[in-house]
Amino acid sequence: MPTLTNIALMSPDWSWWRFGTPKPRTLPVHEILFVITGELPICFAGVWQQLKPSQGVAVRSGTPRATRCSGREDLTFFVLQWQGDFPPLSSPHTIDDRSGRCQLLLNWLLDLSHHGAGAVERRMRGHLLNTLLLDLQPRPTPPVDDPLLRVRRFLDDHFHRPISLIDTLPYSGVSKDRTIRLFRARFGTTPHQYLLTKRVDAAVRLLRASRLPLPTIALQTGFSSVLHLGRAVRRSTGRHLRAWRQAGSTPPV
User: Which of 29, 59, 147, 185 sits 20 to 30 Å CA-CA off 87?
Assistant: First the structure.
C-alpha cells in the first residue's frame, strides 16, 4: 500500500518554485498538484500549461518540472507526496476532477494528517490514498463485441467510482431509455440496480471483513456518503451497517 509522506494546502507568497529530484539514497517520492482556486502555471520538458480549478497532475518521482506561482491571493492548491508504487500512467498524468471526488479525498487526507500519527491514522491515510490512486487509473474499453456485455463489464470494473448510466452510453451505442430496456430484457435488472447491487455487495464484504472507517468504505464502493451507503445497504439487505459490522461470521450476501 502507498505511504503518504506529506500533504499541504498551499497559497503562494513567492514568485518561483522549482521541484527537485529526490536526494541520493532516499526512496522515490511521487507528487500530485491539484488546484482549488485560481490558476497554476506548470512546466514539463519546457512546455507550460495552466492548471485551473478542479484540475491537477500526478507526477512520477524524478520527472523534471517547474511551477511558476503568480502570487495572486486567489490561488490555492494541494501538494500531496507519497512513496510506493506509481499508478500505471504516463508522467505527468492530467487530473480532471469533474465529480469533485478527488478534492473530497484530498480534503479528508489533509484533515487526517492533523489528527495524530498512530497506527490507526496511518492505515486510514493509506486506504484513502490508495482509493485516490485507483481513481486516477484509466478506464479501458472492454474487449467484447456485444454492447450489453460491454456495459456490464464497465459496471463490474468501475462500480467503485462515481459513475452513472450516462457513462455507459458509449458502450451500449444506443439511447439511455433503450439501454435500460435492452439491459433489463437481457439480465433481468436495470443498469442502475445492477450497479447498486455490486456496490452493496462490496460494502457488506468490507463491513464484515475489515475495520475500515465507514467514510472509507463508502468511498471505496462508489457511494457519495455514509448516509447514502447506509440507506442502500438497509434497503437491499434489511440490516443496518452496525449489524453487518458485527456479523463477521455470517455468510455474505
Answer: 147
